[in-house]
Amino acid sequence: MPVPDLHTIMDAAERIKPLIHRTPLMRSAGINKLLGTEIIFKCENLQKAGSFKSRGACNAVFSLDAGQMSKGVGTHSSGNHAQALARAASLRNMDAYIVMPETSPQVKVKGVMGYGGRITFCKPTLQAREDALKEIIKSTGALEVHPYNDYRIIAGQATAALELIEEAGEVDIMMAPVGGGGLLSGTALITKYVSRNCLVIAAEPEKANDAYRSFHEGRFIPSENPKTIADGLLTSLGSLTFPIITEYVDDIVTVSEEGIISAMRLIWERMKIIIEPSSAVPLAAIIENKLDVKNKRIGIILSGGNIDLDRLPWSAHS
Amino acid sequence: MPVPDLHTIMDAAERIKPLIHRTPLMRSAGINKLLGTEIIFKCENLQKAGSFKSRGACNAVFSLDAGQMSKGVGTHSSGNHAQALARAASLRNMDAYIVMPETSPQVKVKGVMGYGGRITFCKPTLQAREDALKEIIKSTGALEVHPYNDYRIIAGQATAALELIEEAGEVDIMMAPVGGGGLLSGTALITKYVSRNCLVIAAEPEKANDAYRSFHEGRFIPSENPKTIADGLLTSLGSLTFPIITEYVDDIVTVSEEGIISAMRLIWERMKIIIEPSSAVPLAAIIENKLDVKNKRIGIILSGGNIDLDRLPWSAHS
Once rounded to an integer, what is the mean pLDDT over residues A93-104? Predict the structure, then answer.
């Protein structure tokens, strides 16, 4: 399968349409005034299962043929992909085998169980996660659906930016956070396909800056010991996402932890919506003057809204 | 001016249309499944200035003739009406004189200042507030715009339920919280005008149950020493709202503080939107089985989203 082209992404959009929310666009007069720009937020925090991950997961699961379907799908994830995949599989009456670290927050475990996912707990190391998944796949024949290093996933994630442009018209800059690069790859592809002159700029936490370094040094650098509140952005780029990002993304900038918390709180206070820290990273880049936004129209994908309400970042600071 | 009729409310809707958000309706498959019902939420937490109060304030301010305009408007309020009135006045280049208790949370003071309101601080008693406002009105000639005991305000608040019914079609039960009764009066009037068979049911905190008692005992009982987390619902009914509620509302039920906090948290977690405690009161009534909702379609006005993020009710409980 080649890099998703416009046709493939349009197909994905059609395929997942009945399975997901067409999430609203939101604007904040207060934030625009504060920052001297015009920002259009695509609210994937209001997406089914709480994040854009439902797009890719639905596209992958509903692309499977009957033979693959009968054996189910599997992944290891403690995050939004786990819930999204469990939900997508349940919509197609398939099994979803989810390997989760035994340290996963209760709220995420409950989320996966709520969608009927079959959970296997393992030690909280990448090795243990991969081993456990391999074992399950061997015994069940389930198909692994990787959270980002998969073209069907990338094509699905692309549909968020597509909807933004369809509804708001062209923007000058399109922004997304970057972790493994699934959302960013999809966003970059579709933006350049339908709006050639739009800049695509990603934002990443300074404390998990592997994509920033990989992009600027022109070679793959894995994420090493990342420590950021943006827990959706801890992963390294993949072998499929890195080349797309190299070719289609115009810049990657980094932001401080304080910037992420400020941006998140600004959105909560002004827009009255709940976003998780990862979603706040692009706005943090604007607040920290990491790009020129003066009088520009900017699209930002707010990636998700899954957060533990008992552990808000400002509680520790107040 | 008589009780607002359908024509008056439609006029208000037309008048305020360019001045407010047409807020979205939201549904949660998870909450519906949990409660065995279908709830349609009208998201006034996403309204301009963070609450439905912008509807009434805009209707009142934009109903004024040129003579009244030149002298400005005034009110005493530490809550959402203060911000909404300051905003509405600024849109019409008028002065807004806002009397606020010196103990008002900083976030609310900043909100009013952000809209250009002229604040006078006073001691935190009703007497001091009324005296300070009287003084200002005497010296400026400003017109007092009461937060709820005013037919223009009531007609404005009615437009939220009107939009809900326009967009979602008829519902079996329409719910709103009740404090001073402005939102409830407007909601009840328009619901009965356009959807005669729909039940209108209000919910109120047990610990601020003056409307419940007034309604069921058939005589006005003022709010005495109310103590509830739902800080938008502390006020007593007014001389204009009580008769409308008596005639047009089918029932008022009460809920516990724990129910309010649970309902608020459920909405935050499942719907990823920020609502203030007062907004959660109708859902709390459903959670606490205060009405029969089985297989019913229910409309709920989520009244507002202004809350101090440093003092969330579950922080104290965790």
Answer: 93
